[in-house]
Amino acid sequence: MEFATFAARAEELAAEPGDIGTTLAVADLLRATDGDDLATVTRFLLGRVFPAHDTRTLDIGPALCRESIARAAGPNVTAADVEDRLASAGEIGAVAAGFDFGGQRGLAAFGEGRDVLTVAELDGALRELAAASGDGSESRKLDALFGLFNRCDPAEATFLARLVLGEMRIGVGEGTVRDAVAEAFLAVSAGGDGDEEEGDGDEEEGDGDEEEQPDGDDTDPALRADDEAVATIERALQVTNDYGRVAALARDEGLTGLRAEGLEVGRPVQAMLAQAGTATDAVESFGEVAVETKFDGARVQIHYVPEGDGDEADGGALGPELYSRNMDDVTDALPEIAERVADRADVPVILDGEVVAVDDGGDPLPFQEVLRRFRRKHDVDRMRDEVSLRLHAFDCLHADGADFLDEPLRARHDRLVDVLPGAAAELETASDVEAIEAAEAAALDAGHEGVMLKDPDAAYTPGDRGREWLKRKPDVETLDAVVVGAEWGEGRRADLFGTFLLGVRAGADGVSAEADSRRAETGDDEFATIGKVATGLTDEELADLTERLEPHVVSEDGTELAIRPAVVLEVGYEEIQTSPTYSSGYALRFPRFVGVREDKSVADADSLERVARLAGDAA
Ligand code: AMP
């Protein structure tokens, strides 16, 4: 494919307003792309030359890009001129297009003698340029990029500039490419029998246009690849991290080929992620909960094939390689972790874990200490003496030629304990909140960050931030809230207040004492309610609060009492959520009494603004 064709299609994509239209247009482009160009074009659409798992980068910064554009623009143009134009155009592609490089050389853009740039040639040139290293590599990159710009018409220049800076600005994201690949190569064919197992790419070719016709289906002209096709592609993307490869596989081998795609030692996958959650959430969702320490360090994915082992299944020996959460290669910065893996593992593995800095006694140090080691390129040996590291492996994705992504955590954990003796404890499980809280307290006592609560039956889903893994950290900050109501207790606490309605200051200027009493009389709402607290109080505390609050009761309705703001409570919580239940628009999840803020008047209580901030909303 000529790069000019790609650029023209990219311009059309940028002008396409709808999501479905974009997906169909990308599908069209992919169908129209032959041979090896398909993988390249798929990556280019996402602004990539290399797949995400590949640690190579072009390493072309904006300055180098501007400089090469200036050079291609002719002797009278400087990098500063390019910068000026960038300031008004706001975007490098438009700047590159504006110079009309072909015109500079007196060539008609599509005229005779034009040295046509193909997608394949450009890809090769950029890969070569990425390999430049050492002295003079900067100027070699500049020369190479200048040479490429020199051959570009305005549309090509636009997309070359954007490609080297990794941002295409054509409204095509990863989800679009995924859906488009499904649409292009795995859609049930027109009038077809739904036998998508065939996956025979050839049959799809050449009849792309007919595919656009809805086949008697009266649903919108939309996407016809089914959910299974999309899920299969998603899965192949998770294990390969390469949109180009997956597009080619979908075309050439269909669903069968995509399903056969497995992990490869040495090719990192995205890490599985966690959502915030509580012990109660975990017990309710999983029943039995795997409780692991949440280590406060840096994520590492370990790939290793020992000498003389697994050569067939895993493609030859591979010294331990360590990848960060973003799949950067951090092996050289962490030699002792690599050594430890090589010492202990006897079979090829892909493991997931956390590297933590420890003091001389082996106790964990704050996260910042790990950072001093993590991406270090120089003085690694000196820093190795200064900051000791420990590996806590917690998952096993692959061992001895077999992938375990679809195995339950329990099984993966058993494999982990087998393959890395001594580096991981047996999986601990608990089925009640108290046991989890005890484990959390022990983890915190030992200086860790909290606990991870995992579904022991869940698969490992790379890149997914699902509810299968919950992270549970202690409350970061408490809230000082005003008691604005109460409910009588029950049973032996029937003559005491048992539940307290909490409010935060809602007025922008805080609340004056006069406003307090006026509010009580008039019902004027100076405080916005945010939740009720009923846990964490002893009988004595309830008796004390009842006594303090009784004089401030303004009205009583059944078991519910309205209380004039007078007492400030410090409350903990798991999370602040938006909620229509309370007048603040927020609700505390699992609020818990910490104490009475004797030192605070209601005017010093927390404001709605702070709540919004704690909830992560813009204040
Ligand atoms: P956060 O960074 O707060 O989103 O928490 C998730 C991170 O906790 C993961 O990406 C890991 O780096 C880290 N982590 C620490 N211990 C564990 C564990 N036992 N299981 C999974 N992740 C863990």
Q: Could you describe the 3D structure shown?
A:
The chain has 619 residues and is α+β, with helices and mostly antiparallel strands. It is 40% helix and 19% strand. Strands 11, 12, 13, 14, 15, 16 and 19 form a seven-stranded antiparallel β-sheet that branches. β6 and β7 form a beta hairpin. α5 packs across α6 and α14 crosses α15. It is globular, with a radius of gyration of 31 Å. About 8% of the residues have low confidence. The structure holds adenosine monophosphate. The site of adenosine monophosphate has 13 residues, from β1 and β2.
- Count of domain modules: 4
CATH architecture of the largest domain: 2-Layer Sandwich
Broad CATH class of the largest domain: Alpha Beta
Bound molecules: adenosine monophosphate
Q: How many strands, which pairing sense, and closed or not: the largest β-sheet?
A: 7 strands, antiparallel
Oligomerization status of the protein chains: single chain
CATH third-level topology of the largest domain = D-amino Acid Aminotransferase, Chain A, domain 1
Class derived from helix and strand content: alpha+beta
Helix count equals 25
Q: If you compute it from the alpha carbons, what radius of gyration comes out, rounded to the nearest whole angstrom?
A: 31 Å
- Tell me the CATH superfamily of the largest domain: DNA ligase/mRNA capping enzyme
- Unreliable spans are 190-220, 508-524
